[in-house]
Amino acid sequence: MPTVSDGAACWRLARDSGVLDLNSRYAYLLWARDFAETSAVAWLRGGVVGFVTGFRRPERPATLFVWQIAVAGAARGRAVGAAMLDALVDRLPDVDHVEASIAPDNAPSQALFAGFAARRGAAVSRSLLFGADLLGNGHRPEILVRIGPLRR
């Protein structure tokens, strides 16, 4: 689980990813404080090399919504994202579905969540979450990926 002291490192990973929507450093600090139970960090050689931020949907507390996943360039290709996602869900035994929003052209995220669904023997459904018109500023649409029910 992340601690507040991990928040700045998570912000740097998001910034350096070049693909994630960057929130303020303050947001990552709050996330590490208030949503640590539903988030994860990966460490390598004394530093944070990956994070997953998530939260339980208020109207569906058995659903974990994954907000962002980032892995440092030096740690990519080592299944760090998959390991963090698996460890996080394993830590939450009452979660039976995982949701995430993915841009249509984000092949790495699509592969990550498809692999997770396969490992959990779970169905995957997709629907439009937010269109480009709502997101504005040239943002691509966000597709809601819903995975579940999860096999434990």
How does this model look, in words?
With 152 residues, this protein is of the alpha+beta class. It has one domain: 3-Layer(aba) Sandwich (Aminopeptidase). Helices cover 32% and strands 31% of the residues. The protein has five helices and six strands, in the order H-H-E-E-E-H-E-H-E-H-E. The chain has helices at residues 7-17, 25-34, 80-90, 107-119, 132-135, and strands at residues 40-44, 47-57, 60-71, 97-102, 124-130, 142-147. The chain has a six-stranded mixed sheet with strand order 1-2-3-4-6-5. A hairpin with a 2-residue loop joins strand 2 (47-57) and strand 3. The longest helix has 13 residues, at 107-119. InterPro entries: Acyl_CoA_acyltransferase, Ectoine_EctA, GNAT_dom. This is L-2,4-diaminobutyric acid acetyltransferase.
List the helices and strands and how they pair.
Layout (H helix, E strand, L loop, with lengths): L6 H11 L7 H10 L5 E5 L2 E11 L2 E12 L8 H11 L6 E6 L4 H13 L4 E7 L1 H4 L6 E6 L5
Parallel strand pairs: 3-4
Antiparallel strand pairs: 1-2, 2-3, 4-6, 5-6
Helix pairs in contact: 1-2, 3-4
Could you give a short description of this structure?
By secondary structure, the protein is α+β, with helices and mostly antiparallel strands. The chain has a single domain (4-147), classed as Aminopeptidase (3-Layer(aba) Sandwich), CATH 3.40.630.30. Helix content is 32%, strand content 31%.
Number of helices: 5
- At CATH's second level, what is the architecture? 3-Layer(aba) Sandwich
Largest sheet: 6 strands, mixed
Give the C-alpha Rg: 15 Å
Q: CATH superfamily, called what?
A: Gcn5-related N-acetyltransferase (GNAT)
End-to-end gap: 21 Å
Percent helix, as a range, is 25-40%
How does the overall form come out from the CA principal axes?
Answer: globular
Overall SS class: alpha+beta
Identify the CATH class: Alpha Beta
State mean pLDDT (0 to 100 scale).
96
CATH names the topology as: Aminopeptidase
Q: Taking strands numbered 1, 2, ... along the chain, how are they ordered across the largest sheet? A: 1-2-3-4-6-5
Total of domains: 1
**Which band does the percent of strand residues land in?**
25-35%
Uncertain stretches of 5 or more adjacent residues: none
Number of strands: 6
